[in-house]
Backbone:
C-alpha cells in the first residue's frame, strides 16, 4: 500500500524469510560464514539455536543459497515424526521409493544412495528446522544417520535449527551421544538496540530505497525497545509505522508513527512498567479487598 509513496519496489518488512533481505550485522554474517565452512568440510553435526523470531529460518535459507553447487540440500520441516517416519521422509527428499519397505530396507536404500552421490563427487546436507519439537527418539534416529560414512568422510551432513529448548533436550543424559557429535554450535542473538536503525535501512535498500533515512532516530529507538531485539517483531512494527506515516502523508517515519504501531501490537506494549499512580491505585484496591474479606468473615 505504501510502497509507491516511499519509492519502494516491494514491501521491505515482510516476515517471510527472503535471502535478498538478509542482514549480516549483529553476528549473523559471521554465523553464516562459519556454517558454510563447517558444512563444506563435512564436520559432524551443526546446531543453531535462537529465540522465536530472531532469524534462524533466514539463516537456513541463506545457507542453502550460498552452498556450492556440488552440495545437495534436503529439508526436514516437520518435527513431529517418529524414527521410522523420519527415515521415510529423508528417503523421499532424496527421491527414493519407500512404499512397503521395512525400516532396515529404507536405511539400506538411503546408504546406497548416499554412497552413489559421494562417488559422483556430491555431498548431501540435511537441514532440520524446529528441532526442539522433535521427539527424543527421533533425534536419536537422526544421530544414527551420521554413522553412514566412508573411511574419510560423512555421507550425510546435518544442521539442526531450534529454539533454546533444543539445548535443554540435548542436556539430558539420554542425549549425550548426540551432543558429542555436535562439532559446531551457534546462537542467534536478539538484535542490539543501537543496530535497529541500520537493520531498517538495510531492509529498505533491499526494497529499492536509495534516499535519506526514512526512519527517524527516535522512531528506531522506540521500535528497538518495544521489539526487544526480536527481528520478526521489528519487521511487524516497522511495517505498521510506515503505514501510519503513509496515512499522515509524511515523508519520514517519526516517533509518533512508531508509537501508533506499538499501540496496535500487543507484544509492543511495555510490560512490567506501571506509573506511580497505577501503583498507588493497585495498592489501595488490594487493601480494600482485604478489608472486605475480613468483614465478610465476621458476618
Residues:
Amino acid at each position: 500500500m505504501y510502497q509507491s509513496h516511499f519509492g519502494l519496489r516491494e514491501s521491505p518488512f515482510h516476515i517471510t524469510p527472503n535471502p535478498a533481505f538478509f542482514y549480516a550485522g549483529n553476528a549473523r554474517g559471521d554465523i553464516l560464514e562459519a556454517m558454510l565452512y563447517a558444512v563444506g568440510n563435512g564436520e559432524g553435526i551443526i546446531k543453531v539455536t535462537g529465540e522465536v523470531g530472531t532469524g534462524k529460518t533466514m539463516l537456513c535459507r541463506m545457507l542453502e543459497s550460498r552452498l556450492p553447487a556440488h552440495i545437495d540440500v534436503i529439508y526436514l520441516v516437520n518435527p513431529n515424526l517418529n524414527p521410522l517416519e523420519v527415515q521415510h521422509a529423508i528417503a523421499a527428499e532424496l527421491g527414493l521409493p519407500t512404499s512397503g519397505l521395512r525400516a532396515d530396507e529404507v536405511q539400506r536404500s538411503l546408504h546406497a544412495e548416499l554412497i552413489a552421490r559421494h562417488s559422483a563427487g556430491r555431498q548431501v546436507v540435511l537441514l532440520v528446522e524446529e528441532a526442539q519439537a522433535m521427539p527424543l527418539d527421533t533425534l536419536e534416529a537422526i544421530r544414527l544417520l551420521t554413522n553412514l560414512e566412508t573411511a574419510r568422510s560423512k555421507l550425510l551432513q546435518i544442521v539442526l535449527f531450534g529454539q533454546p529448548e533444543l539445548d535443554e533436550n540435548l542436556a539430558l543424559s539420554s542425549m549425550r551421544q548426540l551432543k558429542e557429535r555436535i562439532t559446531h554450535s551457534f546462537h542467534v542473538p536478539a538484535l542490539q538496540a543501537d543496530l535497529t536503525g541500520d537493520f531498517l535501512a538495510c531492509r529498505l535498500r533491499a526494497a529499492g530505497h536509495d534516499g535519506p533515512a526514512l526512519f527517524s532516530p527516535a522512531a528506531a529507538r522506540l521500535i528497538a525497545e518495544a521489539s526487544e531485539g526480536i527481528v520478526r517483531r521489528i519487521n511487524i512494527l516497522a511495517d505498521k509505522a510506515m503505514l501510519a506515516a503513509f496515512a499522515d502523508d509524511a515523508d519520514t517515519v517519526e516517533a509518533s508513527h512508531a508509537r501508533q504501531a506499538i499501540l496496535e501490537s500487543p507484544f509492543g506494549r511495555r510490560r512490567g512498567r506501571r506509573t506511580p499512580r497505577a501503583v498507588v491505585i493497585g495498592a489501595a484496591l488490594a487493601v480494600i479487598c482485604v478489608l472486605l474479606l475480613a468483614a465478610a468473615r465476621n458476618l
Remarks:
- The chain has two domains: 27-188, 193-268.
